Amino acid sequence: MRKALGIRSWEAGQAIVRGWEARQTASVALAEAFTRFLADCSARNLRGETVGKYVLLRREMEARFGNRPVDSISVEDLALYRESWKMAPLSACKKIERMRTFFRFCVERSWTGRNPASLLKPPKAMQSPTLPFPGDDLEKIRKAFDAYTDRPVGRREQLRAFVLLLEHSGLRIRDAVCVSKDKIRDGRLLLYTQKTGQPVWMPLPPVVVEAFEPLAFRPFWSGDCEPKSAVGDWQRTLARFFKIAGIQGGHAHRFRDTFAVRLLSRGVSLENVSVLLGHADIKITQKHYAPWVRSRQDRLDEEVRKIWEG
Question: Could you tell me which of 169, 221, 173, 177 has the C-alpha nearest to residue 200?
């Protein structure tokens, strides 16, 4: 390597060269680094969908950078790689975060001295606003069950139970698809198990419990395919159902928003709503639902009225 160091001190130059030599001996190729990283993901028991996204990142980065050492990939290399993306800003933000996680793993293993992805500024992404179903839309949804074609036989009954579960539990669509009847006991639904090992149960209205009674043990997923495929099937079913009901912009997550807003508007604390939604941090709940907290709005109203009183 012939390179001007831009310094006059022989000792300082020798130190830089020794650092280069040390990195060469400690460096790991990109393919090997990803192999070790994915093995660590599996050992940590991450969800298959999460690991799948890292596998996709590996395939793309190896196609872009070949089998270069991880410490040879610079911020500029990643910036040029990002310029080739054709995706929405929110998706780009998530992809940058996955790159940061990978390179942070490499730094922790001493394969590189810095995390180049940490210097990439994510694009400005506008979060979709929380859009609960208004009361008249919920009424349209309830009336649309009878209009849905019952093919195969029992599908209408299955759809009704699925929609009622989404509305009254706040579950994400994947969690709802994977629900089994043993999670419902004495009119309560087992949502998840906290890190302390304590189960969290939530009461369900009788109409939901009754809708589950004639269904199979695992009513929404046969187990013959990956959960992701079953979720796709139900998303298409819901799209047809919302079209029949005359709902514009309907999707499963709006039931989750409706559930959260219904609780908050009735004075349920943000902390309890966060637990029921299964958020890892209350900040996530605040980010999406703070405008709907009734106690917060009551305090704002009180402060404004004080101004009127002088």
Answer: 169
